[in-house]
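Researcher: I'm preparing a figure for a lab meeting and need a structural model of a single chain. I don't have an experimental structure, so a prediction will have to do for now. The sequence is pasted below. Please return the structure as C-alpha cells so I can convert it later.
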Amino acid sequence: MKFLLWCILLFFCWPLALLALVLYPLVWLLLLPFRMVGIAVEGALGLVWAIVTLPARVIRAI
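Model: Understood. Here is the structure written out cell by cell.
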C-alpha cells in the first residue's frame, strides 16, 4: 500500500516523492528509540499486570 501511494506521489510530484524516499530512513531512525521505550514500557506493564492478577489465577486454579 505504501509503495502504491509513493508511485502516485511520484507521478504527480516527483521531487516530493524523491524527498520522501530520502527522508523515510532518517525518520525511521529518529523514531527507533521511542519504539524501544514503548516495547520496554509494554513489557513492564505486562509484568505488573501478571503480578496483580496472580492471586486470582491461583485461587481459580484451586
